[in-house]
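chain below, 139 aa
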Amino acid sequence: MPTQRLGLPEIHYQSMPVQLASVPEGPLVDIPFGRLFGTRSGDKGGAANCGVWARSDEAYAFLHEFLTVEKLKALCPDIAQFNIDRYELPNIRSLNFYIHDILGEGVSSNNRIDGQAKSFGEYLRARTISVPAPLATDV
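prediction:
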């Protein structure tokens, strides 16, 4: 049921679909996630968000396929219990993950070691992932 009281038409912004580059092929090599991707994270009330961006179109194509919500939970098992939304921002080669309720009532009322979720992005960057060798040589 709509909550708008003025009766104005709803506006939906729909951009043209973005054509992603192809993921390079080749043998897989293990590298730290942060060698290929940047991150930034922080609190949003009782939730946290983590933005992840790629430095090239090919790296973003890999990120887009690789980093699902399920894969994020596998890389960072301490967040597996939380509901997570994934938002795609292909025009800026980025993904954003919104982690619901990870901070409980908010920054001032939780006892997590990382109470503001500021280090979550660095924690993700420290995880080891397998990527096609051509991506690993570009960094």
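The helical segments are 33-36, 57-66, 69-75, 120-125, 133-137. The CA atoms of residues 113 and 119 lie 10 Å apart.
thats it, cya
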